[in-house]
Design a protein that fits this description.
Layout: E1 5-11, H1 15-26, E2 31-35, H2 61-73, E3 79-81, E4 84-88, E5 94-98, E6 102-110, E7 114-116, E8 132-133, H3 136-139, E9 147-151, H4 155-164, E10 170-174, H5 184-192, E11 196-199, E12 202-210, E13 212-220, E14 226-230, E15 239-242, E16 246-248, E17 259-260, E18 263-264, E19 277-279, H6 291-314
Parallel strand pairs: 1-2, 1-6, 2-3, 6-19, 8-15, 9-10, 9-15, 10-11
Antiparallel strand pairs: 4-5, 5-6, 7-16, 12-13, 13-14, 17-18
Helix pairs in contact: 1-2, 1-6, 4-5
Length: 316
Amino acid sequence: MEDKIYDVIILGGGPAGLAAGLYAGRARLDTLMIEKEKEGGLIVQTEEVENYPGAIEGDTGISLTQRMVEQVDKFLANRLIDTITEVDLESDIKVLKGQKGEYRAKTVIVATGAKPKLMGCPGESDFIGKGVSYCATCDGAFFEGFDVYVVGGGDSAVEEAIFLTRFAKKVHIIHRRDELRAAKSIQEKAFANEKIDFIWNSQVEEVKGTGLVNSMVIKNRKTGEITEIKADENDGIFGIFVFIGYNPITELFEGKLDMKDNYLVTNENMETNIPGVFAAGDVRDKMLRQVVTATSDGAIAAVSAERYIECKEFGC
């Protein structure tokens, strides 16, 4: 057990956590950032970032977050990798137990983000990494010259479909509705791309294969028609990339923090129902989940944590 008591512990190293770390560090708060895997969060999977103010042309999720990390490191020296397994948030001193150690702080900022939502059909889990993927930039190159199917119709799905045309022979977007939900500017790019076609009003019912994905069953939601799509005989495989939304990573806080549909509920100051505990980024219940709102949340959470500590120590 570490005897040290930090001013702030930030859980998560995505854009929200990094922004919180920047603001906490500049405020000279004794801050620890704990990330389960590596900094960056879901944005590192994005090939092109066009909607973040000040982004450089050609910016990727990786390049943008790398600059964030470098900026944070100027002010925040304490960053480590650990998986937190248990939390005690009720006391004035918050205790977080991890696989590598135990950490204590006056305040906690939860910026654990979200993880890709699964289709939930038979065969999906069996073929993750064997044809089923949730990250185009991670796995797109593996399907060079093959057919690829993208499931979803929002910004992420259509943007990643466009990216996958760099590698795939053809990209087929499967969407539950008869029109896309992506921003119009993104839709225009997709409709103009000759390598993209669309399978409307449809959902994947089953994923099949022998070792690797080579067929899937889809259902037309309007007609009920069932179709089995099989890989080209010369290929023997195709890729399925799923972008149908995300689930917040909040299991650790069940029964402890107020939630709505598993997202953490906060006020405009990022305060949860427990004093001294704040939340920021995709883990929050809010209307828009983008990098720009995540960084805003992180900044507000850090400032709120600073004011909370001042009030506890000097009164308000």
